[in-house]
Amino acid sequence: MFFILIVVVVVLLIVYVKLKYFTLRGPLPGLPPQFLFGNLIQSGLLLGGVSLPQVYLAFQARFGDIFQFWLGPTRVIVVSGIGDVQHIFSNRKIYDQGDMAIEQMSLLLPDALICTRGAKYKRHASIVLPLFRRGKIISNLHLIVDCVDKLLAKWRLSPPGHIYVDIVIQCQNLLLLIFGLIAFNYDLETLDDNENGSDNELTRALRDLLSTMEIVLFSPPIVTNIYLKLSRRHRRAKAIIERYLYRIIEQELNENSESMAQ
């Protein structure tokens, strides 16, 4: 009798979790999610070797520019129409940051701009966003062009008919190179042939941080918390990046004090 009661309770609990967390909500279209896995198996993202952009394109063709998608237990509302995206980002006072970014990424980067809302977002944005204004970008445009030329020159050295199957990774390497030169005044060597700069301490740390972001994005918060606390690789990468950031701050302070003295 006791065993039957336990079975009934477990079944009811599973049904409750399925109805509450793995059921389509509202009028937005989408594929009914599977228990625990959401749409990961149905879309081929987990077992079919399909990339996330391919999945989004397939869902967009099937359900339109706005649809629901389950990354495991996490419900995501995907907006893919360029007009809708522009409207959302142009009206941040109306459209606040999504819960997914707050709940997931804040475990990794609690003070990042993407993880803030309300007054905290305004304070952070007043400091961060001016760095991306047109004048700041133009002053580094020659550096960005040089980095792109370096990647194109590397591609031109490939034999005719060669097909690149890692364009996303190479573009990621390009962004890391640009970021390192602008932010750190440091060549991360991500476009070199020495295993994508694997001998570079800061490059390895940034790559580890990016790989951790992928784990955080697809994992439940409790799994993310456990991983971040137990992962030596993540703690080491975080310490290395912080050390370089403090070095930049110290260098900038010294340069400013010298310029003021002159």
UniProtKB/TrEMBL annotation:
The organism's taxonomic lineage, starting at the top: Eukaryota, Metazoa, Spiralia, Gnathifera, Rotifera
Molecular function per GO: heme binding; iron ion binding; monooxygenase activity; oxidoreductase activity, acting on paired donors, with incorporation or reduction of molecular oxygen
Reported cofactor(s): heme
Gene3D superfamilies noted in UniProt: Cytochrome P450
Entries under InterPro entries matching the protein: Cyt_P450 (IPR001128), Cyt_P450_sf (IPR036396), Insect_CytP450_Detox (IPR050476)
Keyword Endoplasmic reticulum in annotation: no
Family named by the database record: Belongs to the cytochrome P450 family.
Keyword Isomerase among UniProt keywords: no
The protein, known as: Cytochrome P450
Pfam families cross-referenced by the UniProt entry: p450
Keywords from the named record: Heme, Iron, Membrane, Metal-binding, Monooxygenase, Oxidoreductase, Transmembrane, Transmembrane helix
TM annotation in the entry: 35-59, 163-184, 209-228
